[in-house]
Structure formats: structure tokens, C-alpha cells
Specification:
about 200 residues; alpha/beta; seven-stranded mixed sheet
């Protein structure tokens, strides 16, 4: 019998981050299984460029960093100065990560203007999932991974949020430039990969 959490290697510092996260009652934290998946995907992209939308207290940030090689870099964005300060305090010694306190939607627009693209995008906030979706897809390199979680009902969902989730999953399924896998696993995860040779014009069937 496979027990998913058995033998799970947790990155250094995660337990301290989780303790502080629980202390401040910050509930928007990805599950360990999602963290493990992010680490595995990051490992597949040597010298990769990674983007996290929604730093929170840095738990998922730490998981992504644990899969990155020394030549990779991670840009993580959040508009909450208080929680980013916690992430910085625990991860600032890692030169591969850049923290940006700003509106994620504004940053997505600026990254597009600058011509940036990424090997993995973990969209864990409103922008990049429910707003600025097209702009986020433009930031994804061919062969890159787009990852979202919390696609199964969560205690902190607002009334009617399930309709937004269904619309997003439907949008992903219609896009010709993506291969999409939906997983009824952990908090509900979707992983999409952009096809090589696809262009921004190839949006829907």
C-alpha cells in the first residue's frame, strides 16, 4: 500500500515556517503533497526560471527552492508585506530567490512588457488564475509548467467560488497550446504544459 506522506522529505526550515504560519492563523498554505510536486517539477528544469504568484509565508517558496539547481532563479510575488517579511526572514540567505511586494496583476503585466518567460509558474493567488489569465499564459515558456491548486472545495472559499473554479478548468481544457492534467488529489491540482511550437494566437479550438 502506498502512503503518500510516508518518507516525504521536507525541506529545511519548513517546520519553522509552518509553526509561524499557524501562529498568525494564516490559512492560505499549500499542502505538503503540492509542495512535493512543485519540487519534482522544479528539478526537471535545470537552469530554470520560476515564477510564484502568491508568496504567503514562503512555504511553497521553500519547496520550489528545494528542487532548483544553483543556476536557477525564482521570482515570488505577494501584496502582503507582513507575510512576505516572514518568508524573507527564513529564506533570505538563498540568493536564487527574489521577493517582490506588489500587486501580482501589475507584475504580470510588467513581466509581459519586459518580454519575460518562465519554465514553471505556480499561480497561488487571484491574479494568474481568475484574473490576468491570458497574460500569465504568455509568460509560460514552451515546455513550461503552469500549476494551480485548491481546485477542490476549501473551507475558505467564498460563496459562488466553485463557479469560478469550474470556469477556469473549462478554459484550460479548451486551449490548444496546452496539455492539461487534472488531479483529484491533495487540495485539487491542475498541471498544464505548453506545447513546443505553439504561439499566443493558438488559444482555443
Amino acid at each position: 500500500m502506498m502512503i503518500e506522506l510516508k518518507y516525504l522529505k521536507v525541506p529545511d526550515g519548513i517546520q519553522n515556517l509552518l509553526a509561524i504560519t499557524n501562529e498568525i492563523k494564516f490559512s492560505m498554505v499549500s499542502e505538503p503533497l503540492v509542495g512535493s510536486l512543485l519540487r519534482t517539477l522544479a528539478t526537471s528544469k535545470p537552469s530554470g526560471q520560476f515564477l510564484e504568484l502568491g508568496t504567503g509565508t514562503g512555504v511553497s517558496t521553500a519547496w520550489i527552492l528545494s528542487g532548483m539547481d544553483l543556476q536557477s532563479s525564482l521570482l515570488t510575488i505577494d501584496n502582503d508585506q507582513a507575510v512576505v517579511a516572514i518568508a524573507k526572514a527564513h529564506l533570505k540567505g538563498d540568493s536564487r530567490v527574489t521577493f517582490k511586494v506588489s500587486d501580482a496583476g501589475d507584475c504580470i503585466n510588467q513581466l509581459n512588457q519586459d518580454g519575460k518567460q518562465f519554465d514553471l509558474i505556480f499561480a497561488d493567488t487571484w491574479a494568474g488564475k481568475y484574473t490576468h489569465f491570458e497574460q500569465t499564459m504568455q509568460l509560460l515558456k514552451p515546455g513550461g509548467f503552469y500549476v494551480i491548486d485548491d481546485m477542490l472545495p476549501q473551507p475558505n472559499w467564498l460563496e459562488g467560488h466553485e463557479l469560478k473554479v469550474a470556469a477556469l478548468i473549462g478554459e484550460l481544457a479548451q486551449r490548444r497550446e496546452l496539455s492539461v492534467t487534472k488531479m483529484h488529489w491533495a487540495s485539487g491540482v491542475v498541471v498544464a504544459t505548453k506545447h513546443y511550437g505553439s504561439s499566443s494566437a493558438e488559444l482555443r479550438n
